[in-house]
Design a protein that fits this description.
By secondary structure, the protein is of the alpha/beta class. The protein is built from 24 helices and 16 strands. Strand 12, helix 15 and strand 13 form a beta-alpha-beta unit. It binds phosphoenolpyruvate and magnesium ion (MG).
Length: about 575
């Protein structure tokens, strides 16, 4: 038996068999000449690879039609059209015959040329297709080169997924029904992969460094993701102890869910709102099970990352309407796309950056792509007649960016008016406070915003200089750092001075050990992974605002996160002995 210690990415306890997922490297495609008498064999090889790819895509298209939306199935139908395009085939076959080159090169070259033509097109629809060509082309090349890439979408039995790293898009497209837990070499608790694991209620332990070298396929694993521990091949008696803990954990979760219909109100009558964060529209359907009073953060970028494509205005509108239909009259805050950083759409927005987290991300990218930004704003505006919608801008660093984004919003409104498309004229516009300069100038931003939502994941990353996906420095990402508490206090204060609400949608909002402190700082709304709502609500319903204010005051006088954590832990243990026990 061996134990590995990492960080908790998504809580829960689970036991199961390891599925080691190591992505295979695709060898470099080189050009070489073939003798004339090998032409037929080369053509046959390409034909077989194409047939295999067509068969796979047909199966995927059927699966998508059964399990996902029509849009999902359409993506694969488009792939099929490309794979079966006669002109495209003829072009490649004649290249092999006349130039006497190997099939991989002929195919790779033809796909690359086609992709370049698409990318150069002024029409965004054509540019969107480029990513499909890449997808289709690597599928065929994998067969030609006999590279077997295991697709996580094809998982057909329960596993604990062990990987070096998983992209958010892989978490979105894997067969989540069978992924009982996630174990990763890299990643921190606020990485987007962790956020998605929480959204899907999959226990995850991240930042283990050596998991993929120490765990073998088929090993029995125990994940105690509450404390960030992975046990490899425990003896039988140990394993049954863990299996009991797994059941206890599920029972406790169930008990917490009993508060679903009760308000989030302190013992002395102070009411706050508890909302949910979502990444894909389908999540909205289950939120009310946890007692969510709205959606405080819809990370709209996942609409694009899910498919690897830029969804157009109509397609986005459909997704927003789907969320609104599930939420009824409850408020839904749609954040404009936060693409960039660790959420990249390589074919469309790639600009190989040395430091992507400080680079072309979120509002910066939207402001630089007017067509893309306007389409999103119009889709949000048009959806606003179907529910209670708010717009929010990510990664605002100062008033100039906010003003510029508001000009775009005005233009989008004017276009809607011209097109006679109704929208809620007074739609509220919020600003994410997640860049230190925004927190420091919150009083200025409050003059032009209808609400704030504090993004502690990025606020910690940027103010403590800690890459949120890097496990080596994640020990520094401390929410109770005096510097962070000061930022929170001044942002909340600035909102209240201007009479607007201060919300929080970073992971800190869903951390029950921080709930009392945030209440004491005056936070009005907490938005988190839906499954965290019941626990946070239990804390709120068992404290008074008065005692929370005193706690916040004491912590604001603290000089270190270690000291603050001791105070917080003592306070929580006294009030909630079972919570820490
Ligand atoms: C944040 O930074 O806290 C936040 C909520 O945004 P994201 O995690 O999507 O960057
Ligand atoms: Mg952020």
């Amino acid at each position: 038996m061996k134990k590995l210690i990492g960080v908790s990415g998504s809580s829960g306890i689970v036991t199961g068999k390891a599925f080691l997922y190591l992505e295979k490297e695709v060898p470099e495609i080189t050009r070489f000449s073939i003798p004339e008498d090998q032409v037929d064999a080369e053509l046959a090889r390409l034909k077989i690879a194409l047939d295999k790819a067509i068969k796979e895509v047909k199966a995927l298209s059927e699966k998508a039609a059964n399990e996902m939306s029509k849009d999902g199935a359409d993506i694969f139908l488009a792939h099929l059209l490309m794979l079966e395009d006669v002109d495209f085939h003829d072009n490649i076959f004649s290249k092999i015959k006349t130039d006497l080159v190997n099939a991989e090169w002929a195919f790779f070259n033809a796909s690359r040329q086609l992709m370049q033509v698409m990318l150069a097109s002024p029409d965004p629809i054509f540019r969107e297709r480029a990513v499909d060509i890449k997808d289709v082309s690597s599928r065929v090349l994998d067969h030609l080169l006999s590279v077997k890439q295991t697709s996580l979408a094809d998982l057909d039995h329960d596993v604990i997924l062990v990987a070096q790293d998983l992209m958010p898009s892989q978490v979105l497209t894997m067969n989540r029904k069978h992924v009982k837990g996630i174990v990763m070499d890299i990643g921190g608790a606020t990485s987007h992969t962790a956020i998605l694991a929480r959204a899907f209620n999959i226990p995850a332990v991240l930042g283990l460094s050596t998991a993929t070298s120490e765990i073998l396929d088929g090993d029995t694993l125990v994940l105690d993701a509450n404390i960030g521990e992975v046990v490899i091949n425990p003896p039988r008696d140990e394993l049954s102890k863990w299996e009991h803990l797994e059941v206890d954990y599920l029972l406790k979760l169930n008990e917490d869910m009993q508060t679903r219909d009760l308000p989030a109100v302190t013992k002395d009558g102070h009411k706050v709102l508890l909302k949910a964060n979502i990444g894909i529209p389908e999540e909205a359907e289950s939120l009310q099970r946890y007692g969510a009073e709205g959606i405080g953060l819809f990370r709209s970028e996942f609409l694009f990352l899910d498919s690897g494509q830029v969804a157009g205005e109509e397609q986005q509108l459909k997704s927003y309407n789907k969320v609104l239909a599930a939420m009824g009259k409850l408020p839904v805050t749609i954040r404009t796309a936060d693409i960039g950083g660790d959420k990249i759409l390589p074919e469309l927005f790639s600009s190989k950056e040395i430091n992507p987290l400080l680079g072309w991300r979120a509002i910066r990218l939207s402001l630089a792509m007017p067509e893309f930004f306007l389409a999103q704003l119009k889709a949000i505006l048009r959806s606003s007649v179907n529910g209670n919608v708010k717009i929010m801008f990510p990664l605002i660093s100062g008033i100039e960016e906010l003003e510029e984004a508001l000009v775009f919003l005005e233009e989008a409104k004017n276009e809607c008016r011209r097109m006679k498309q109704p929208f809620a004229e007074n739609i509220e516009v919020g600003v994410m406070i997640e860049v230190p300069s925004a927190a420091m100038t919150a009083d200025i931003l409050a003059q032009r915003a209808d609400f704030f939502s504090i993004g502690t994941n990025d606020l910690l990353q940027y103010s403590l200089a800690v890459d949120r996906g890097n496990e080596k420095v994640s020990y520094l990402a401390q929410s109770s750092h005096p510097g962070i508490l000061r930022f929170l206090k001044s942002a909340i204060q600035a909102a209240h001075d201007k009479g607007i609400k201060a919300a929080m949608c970073g992971e800190m909002a869903g951390d029950p050990s921080m709930t009392a402190l945030l209440l004491g700082l005056g936070l009005d709304e907490f938005s988190m992974a839906a499954s965290s709502i019941p626990r946070v609500k239990r804390i709120i319903r068992n404290v008074t605002l008065d005692e929370c204010r005193k706690l916040a005051e004491e912590l604001l006088g603290g000089i270190s996160y270690i000291g603050n954590d001791v105070i917080l832990k003592k306070w929580m243990t006294e009030k909630f002995p079972k919570e820490n026990g």
